[in-house]
């Protein structure tokens, strides 16, 4: 344990390290979401019943302010040291389960629906933001151990601002895509 703490004291967090950690967490996010998709089990009638419960609040959810607020709240928790990455990966697993539930209810293979999401900008914007938040959470924790938490908190504020703007863009795109597809 002492050796681990000593090694953590000497870690440098240059841009390359931050990008690599973000990519690692992006891959982890993809894995956890796909696990949620693949491990969810329900028959069609059960999935349709659950989908109805989810869609009862659709009118409220079909508002860019709601979409933005919901995603921002989830993201802000992901910035919290130690808790953030755990929370984020659990949320992504749950998201995969919801994707599977809706797919089963609509009669589509869940993995196909998940794969189609790869072609949407929302998918990559939100996963990118979540990965950035979890990265910053880990780095802030390690910087606090190195007694450089104040310096890192400035970066944290910048990352929160950048993530907020990206989530705002994602919410607008998601709202437009929902409304354009419902008019087809």
What does this protein structure show overall?
- With 184 residues, the chain is an all-alpha fold.
- The chain has one domain (15-178).
- The chain has 9 helices and no strands.
- It has helices at residues 2-10, 15-39, 44-55, 58-61, 64-78, 83-106, 110-117, 121-145, 149-182.
- α2 (15-39) crosses α8 (121-145) and α6 packs across α7.
- The mean pLDDT is 90.
Summarize the structure.
With 184 residues, this protein is mainly α.
User: β content, as a range?
Assistant: under 5%
The rounded Rg comes to: 18 Å
Largest sheet: none
Give the uncertain stretches in residue-range form: none
Number of domains: 1
Order of helices and strands: HHHHHHHHH
Q: Supply the helix-strand structural class.
A: mainly alpha
- The first-to-last residue Cα distance is 59 Å
Shape: elongated
- Measured as a percent range, the helix fraction is over 70%
Question: Helix tally?
Answer: 9
- Number-wise, the strands total 0
- The residue-averaged pLDDT reads 90
Topology, element by element:
Elements: H1 2-10, H2 15-39, H3 44-55, H4 58-61, H5 64-78, H6 83-106, H7 110-117, H8 121-145, H9 149-182
Helix pairs in contact: 2-6, 2-8, 3-6, 5-6, 5-8, 5-9, 6-7, 6-8, 8-9
Features:
single chain, 184 residues, 9 helices
